[in-house]
Amino acid sequence: MATPSEECFMQNPLVIWIDTFRETNAPPIQYKDISTGIFLTNVMSQIEAQSVHSKVNTNISDVNARIQNWDNLIKNIKAYYKEVLQQILIMRLPNVQTICRDPEKDPSFEELKKALLLVLGCAVQCERKEHFIEKIKTLDIKVQHAIVDHIKEVTDDTQSVLPINPTEQLDSYVEKTLNHLNKLIIERDELAETVLELKQEQEFYQSQIEGKSSLTAVSPEKHHLVVELADCKAKVRKLRQELEEKIELLSDVMDELDDTKSQLGKIKTEVSIMLPCLHTSIYIV
Questions:
Q1: What is the pTM for the complete model shown?
Q2: For residue 162, which phi and psi values (nearest 5 degrees)?
Q3: Which of 224, 219, 44 is CA-nearest to residue 116?
């Protein structure tokens, strides 16, 4: 039976929208269809068959199977934005560990909304966008308005995406890119510091457990330390994943900034060469 939190999540406009991808006469999607990553992988294959590069695991027997599905799904989404839509995702990506290890807790619902938002961005910018937009028009008017606002988040909002090919003045584009770069550097440094603190905490719990090795296996004190250590290790894994993603994103943005600066330099050089000729032409006329 669904929890109140699950029921609330399933009424979210993004969930109502993603339900339009189910086959005709198929029953409405369930929370587990989304949380396992199976349904969203199917949606991505409908958006672009070639965007799904690995087979989805439909036999979800443990958390590792869910993690595998979500790892592949997020990689496919990132690749689609970068290679097909020519956009770099700036927003913080859905946390796979949170979704897969605590699928029925509130933080997981928030991470799933991020995933749905990213899939929405793919759908309304792909070659079949007219088809998917028509489906949006069949929804309740309030849901439509909410979906339109979400579309703006992943198409117009420079806090979420950054186009690889600038669609505005290069000076303005460079300024925005530098702002993103500074933000990413700060986030990277904060994550690195947190990982270090948790690593030290993990080592402390490990030393405490080893120091109490003479305690019986059922000792409450030792059991508490083991639980704390396991929790600490999970946090370290989660933050290391985020740190790796930030470093990768930082590298992409820096590469794009270098390319844009190069383009800007070439344009300025061309302008400086053309100006004297232009002045001469005006003088002759």
A1: 0.68
A2: -135, 115
A3: 44
